[in-house]
TrEMBL record:
The chain crosses the membrane at residues 412-435, 442-461, 467-490, 502-524, 536-556, 629-647, 667-687, 699-718, 730-748, 755-773, 785-805. SUPFAM superfamilies: Aldolase, MFS general substrate transporter. Gene3D superfamilies: Aldolase class I (3.20.20.70), MFS general substrate transporter like domains (1.20.1250.20). This is Quinate transporter.
Amino acid sequence: MSQLQSKDIIFSNYGNGKQTFIIPLTFTDISDAKGIITRIGYGGDVWELRVDLLSPPGNEVGDVNLPSLVYVKEQVEALQAMSSLPILFTIRTKSQGGKFPDDASKEALDLILLAIASGISYVDVEIDWPPAMLKEIMEKRGSTKVVASYHSWTGKVGWTSEELMQKFAAADAFGDIIKLSILSPTIEDCYELSLFVRDYKLKYSKPLLAVGMGANGQLSRITSPISLVTHPLIPFPSAPGQLTLAQVHQARHLIGQLPKQEVSVVGKENVTQKVSHALQAAFLELGYPHLCSVYKGKNGNVTSELDVTGLGSTSSMVTAVAEAFVQYTGRPVPCSNSQDRMPSLLKIKDSSAFPAPKSVYNWRVYALAISASMGSSMFGYDSAFIGGTITLPSFKSRFGLDSDSKEALASLSANIVSTFQAGCFFGAILVSYFTEKFGRRIPLLSCGILFNLGVVLQLASSGNLGLIYGGRALTGLAVGASSLIVPQYIAEWSPPAIRGRLIGIFEMVLQLSQIIGFWVNYGVNEHISGSSDAQWRIPFSLQLIPGTLLVILMLLQRESPRWLIKNGQRAKAIDNLSFVRKLPVEDAYIQWEADTIEEQLRHEAEVGASQPFLVKIKEVFLPRNRNRLLVGMSLMMLQNLSGINALNYYSPTIFKSIGFSGTSVGLLATGVFGIVKCTATILFMVFGIDRLGRRKSMIIGSSGAIVAMYYLGAYTKLSGSFETPATRDAGAYIAIVMVYIFAVFYAISWNGIPWVFCAEVFPTVAGAVHNYLLDSLYDGKHHVWYFPFFGSSVVCGLIIVYLFMPETKGFSLEEMDILFSIRGFALDKRRGAERAIADQRAAEQTVVENKVGTQHMENTASV
């Protein structure tokens, strides 16, 4: 990224007729600015370090403040490490409106010499200091430029007075830069000041900073070649009447000094939109009047354009925006010395968020997500293998099912599956207590142990269906609990920029585990004799792998920082964040992340503590929460009623019903089904979800799934394949294709979007209800309604999505309340939310800018 700053930026800008903006930092400890330093300095040229305000944490700054040499040196080094902007080192004494003692000349001299030795670009020196002190500074200043300053707070010194002329002469004889600040009792003083500046430029070439303090002097701050400006994120302005950079630019535009900047962005649509939005965000931050147009191709009528045709990566876009901003505004774009940070302004959403270092996106956070996702592996493998395993000849023989009727076998299959789902139901209900009491890591690790215990019971059954049911209930208990813990644990550890990707690992592991479950059944059926118990024991025993991996890998992971902070263990949370983020504990990003979590928890505690239980229950049924809850529950319920669990658990039987007889053929078709669904899911997650959005994906996916399910229903009804073996004709082959088509369309809609849309809804409740309904359908009497039931469920889902599910892409979590508070259907909610959020952001910007002029006036010092 281009940087135009240099140590002589004031001289360079002054000679070229450009304004120079100095940003006073009024923090008592400069580390408080680490998380926001890039944002504060955006568009500025020089930092002013107000040394007289510096004080170590825990020390209260009184009317007089004398910081130590050691502490000031640490602060200088910290600021130099945080930003590449040059620094103006300022000590403002009590008589000049600051905090430094008037009688501490020796200490002031020591601090000035420290600044010079530290390579500071500019030092502010009061011309009323003792002559011997001024002489020593000049002799030892080296390449440091001296700003000779004079301040008057009486309101009695005019710009044509003899006293001012004397002070001006002294400053001119002593300093490289002259600074004169006088309290303006009336707005007419700005006129006298403008005449003074005009006459000065005719005779002198030194840079001059001359401003009127107070509200009546604000016009001088707008027009001065060198101006001190504040920022809403700075604790308080360093002087009364000080404006923000955005306010200065807006005022200059109003008086005709700053023309509107017109920029045209041309190139591919997906790139031009991102670049133009980021560029406009940069313009708006600094109050630049602008017009930004977007073209998909070259426009012959445009004389100045930003061509982004070849851009694709984020870093290239950032560079393009930064260079365009410099080109069209003439303003530098400062950045941190740390090369791994991106200015948060170039991120359109949540511009106040801390720009994350690249080291945050390291292998440890991915390893953490993969480790936790062994919980989804337990779920994925179990849902895939059980339906095929109980149809194996060895399983039927061991459990005495060879002579049972089709209805009896169907009932047994339904019971085994539903026992697992019942365990899931209670696991999902009970887990919340344990995650609040013991954290996320220990309960998740315990799920692996409980799951393995259930597997051992199943392996020990040897013909005892009671042990099978008991083992299935325990594994269901573990899966139900882990299915809720895993997304929560990953989300609490995920940096915002890759949260979707990390939670996506949960779904990817689940899909891959299902493929393994499908193909294990095919393999044992092909290569192990049906008379050997190994044929059914191997698929059952492989459940131990994900359960054991979950236990071992979670032993290596750290507890959630959110839970630790909530339970008063901030130091431990910071240590865990430092390890996973690969940053030192004192790094600004670690501290910011911990502070953010703490602030969120504090807000939640305040809201929760102030409301009795019945009021909290009533809160659930307010429109903004009721609508969200009903849509979310509907999506999770209909996800399970869409037929996917039936295809997972009963796919061999289903494939037989459409003409593919034989255990081996059914298992082979089931394995292909798993591969198709997994591949479609991964491709959609990588390439489709960000382009289509959630709502459009659900509509497209539901439409395709409906066609597939209704064809399967029509085929099985007309062919009677559930009652008698079907002929493997063209209709049967089309039916197989429809199963795979359903897998593809389900993958781009119902497979993952409901989980993202309502992560806090218990999906296993819907799963249990689904399986009881499935049992009643699959009792040997209602087969013909099997696929039409699933198709009709998806039709209901499509209607709900179209009417009631608004597009949530691009909205922050805080903005969801606005989205769901708006009355009307989904499209109305989205449009209304966009308008409301736009109005809210504009209002917030106005409030933030107006805040600066009135904030902390009791702490004001001089410019």
